[in-house]
């Protein structure tokens, strides 16, 4: 018992230290946990008996897949449209065939080539969602497409993992087919049971947090044991349990209840990946490492961009989607570990997968951080994507009658923007709404509200808007770089226009004022209705606008002096 406690303690302490420094450097945490495992195992041999840790890491896989099933929302796949779904399936098929074909030609066996091909088609849901969330891009069009693609990838990964687990022995095809049929039967029976009993059972359990937690975990283990009994891995059973409970209205409470356990065991799983790394001669993996890095960092973005172009999306949307998905997935690591334990792949291929995950997950963080700058460098070379999407655009929504000459441009309709638009309508202003959420634009088109789908950080959209004849430009998007670009463009093209923008905090607000903004909305200072009052006041009065600006600047400076960390 002391040994178990010691090993767990060392793992958690080392993972915490490495993760802390990783976050200081703004790196994703998964590579940090793997590095912690490498330090404890291959490098310093602190932990040599990996049997217990491997058992605990399997629980980590179980919780990861349970959470994946619980958080799976099929509506999100529907939301991104048929084009994105076709694009996802197309790019996964092409990448698998490329990977399988290349490594078969290089002399690797068909089984190893299958694993390497599969490694190319899955991206990291955990890392990508975190990076998009940090940049507030989950609701952008490319963010929504990425989420849809990740959901499809997760479903394919579960099927692939099931098949790989079933093919662990030398079973005949008929035996595997029977096993798959049994798994499907349990799933269907589970859906029926869940529909009949889960609603009432969990309605009662939801009144007590502890009972809800215990019942959620019990369902998880029940399905894990059933699937293990019929020949699947416990992780597949956990995914099915999550999928069944995702239909309940209490799913978010369940996610919250198991989050701590999931995070704890996930850390152990990723550390165990690092522990399992064994030194291999670099010469033996140099060629496949170089090929896979090229296919992941260049091939994946190119194939995804082309597939989305054919599906009707423009180059900017396709580009941001492609580079965000260029990394090795946690599902790939799970598959590789499964393949190693079943003797499907040699140790050097598993070590290769670990190195690839460390390199690609780290590079992804920089891809996402500097996506705008990378697009500015490469955007003109991607015109072929717009050629592919010509006549079939899925992200070219707009409504603007020829006689409509807007005097106000409103960037960002959701939340604050709605109140502003209502006030502007009452004032009789001609408004053009610009938003990056296609659902919002579709609704505005249906309501015959002049609107344009677009990202205000896109130079093409800026050029399309012009700004020469408008009186007021309002942005409710608190994205600092994009807002600075907007102010600069408006000031160049129409110095007399009033520019009202939004900032996350007082520090950003002061910088935006310095850049030339007439007024800066700081959300906890000002709501949509208040801005509507200001709009009424500024109509035809430069003096009033200046007075409001001076008063707000004074309030910001005072707030910064009193609460420097909250300004």
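-> sequence recovered:
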């Amino acid at each position: 018992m002391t040994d178990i406690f010691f090993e767990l303690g060392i793992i958690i302490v080392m993972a915490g230290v490495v993760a802390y420094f990783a976050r200081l450097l703004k790196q994703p945490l998964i590579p940090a946990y793997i590095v912690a495992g490498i330090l404890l195992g291959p490098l310093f041999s602190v932990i040599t008996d990996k049997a217990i840790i491997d058992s605990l890491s399997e629980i980590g896989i179980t919780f990861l897949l349970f959470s994946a099933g619980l958080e799976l929302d099929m509506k999100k796949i529907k939301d991104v449209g048929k084009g994105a779904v076709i694009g996802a399936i197309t790019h996964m098929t092409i990448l698998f065939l490329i990977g399988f074909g290349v490594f078969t030609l290089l002399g690797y066996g068909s089984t190893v080539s299958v694993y390497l091909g599969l490694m190319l088609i899955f991206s990291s849901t955990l890392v990508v969602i975190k990076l998009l969330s940090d940049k507030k891009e989950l609701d952008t069009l490319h963010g929504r497409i990425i989420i849809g693609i990740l959901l499809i990838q997760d479903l394919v990964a579960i099927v692939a993992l099931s098949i790989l687990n079933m093919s662990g022995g030398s079973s005949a095809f008929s035996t595997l087919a029977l096993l798959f049929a049994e798994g499907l039967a349990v799933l269907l029976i589970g859906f029926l049971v869940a529909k009949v009993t889960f609603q009432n059972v969990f309605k009662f359990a939801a009144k007590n947090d502890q009972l809800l937690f215990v019942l959620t975990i019990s369902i998880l283990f029940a399905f894990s044991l059933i699937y293990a009994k019929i020949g699947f891995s416990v992780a597949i059973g956990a995914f099915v349990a999550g999928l069944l409970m995702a239909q309940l209205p209490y799913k978010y409470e369940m996610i919250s209840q198991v989050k701590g356990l999931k995070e704890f065991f996930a850390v152990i799983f990723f550390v165990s990946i690092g522990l399992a790394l064994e030194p291999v001669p670099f010469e033996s993996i140099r060629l496949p490492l170089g090929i896979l890095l090229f296919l992941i960092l260049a091939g994946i973005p190119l194939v995804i961009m082309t597939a989305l172009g054919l599906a009707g999306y423009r180059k900017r949307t396709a580009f941001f989607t492609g580079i965000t998905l260029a990394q090795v997935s946690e599902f790939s690591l799970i598959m590789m570990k499964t393949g190693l334990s079943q003797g499907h792949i040699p140790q050097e291929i598993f070590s290769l997968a670990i190195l690839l995950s460390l390199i690609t997950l780290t590079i992804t963080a920089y891809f996402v951080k500097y996506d705008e700058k990378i697009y500015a460098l490469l955007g003109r070379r991607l015109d072929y994507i717009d050629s592919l999407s010509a006549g079939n655009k899925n992200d070219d929504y707009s409504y603007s009658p020829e006689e409509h000459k807007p005097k106000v441009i409103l960037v960002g309709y959701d939340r604050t923007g709605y109140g502003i638009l209502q006030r502007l309508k009452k004032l009789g202003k001609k408004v053009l709404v610009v938003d990056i959420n296609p659902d919002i634009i579709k609704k505005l088109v249906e309501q015959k509200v002049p609107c344009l789908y677009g990202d205000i950080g896109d130079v093409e959209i800026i050029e399309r808007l012009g700004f020469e004849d408008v009186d007021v430009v309002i942005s409710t998007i608190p994205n600092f770089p994009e807002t600075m670009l907007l102010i600069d463009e408006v000031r160049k093209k129409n110095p007399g226009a009033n520019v009202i923008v939004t900032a996350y905090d007082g520090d950003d607000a002061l910088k935006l004022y310095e850049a030339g903004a007439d007024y800066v909305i700081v959300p906890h200072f000002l709501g949509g209705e208040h801005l509507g009052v200001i709009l009424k006041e500024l109509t035809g009065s430069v003096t009033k606008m200046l007075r409001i600006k001076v008063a707000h600047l004074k309030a910001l400076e005072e707030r910064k002096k009193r609460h420097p960390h909250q300004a």
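The longest strand covers residues 431-435.
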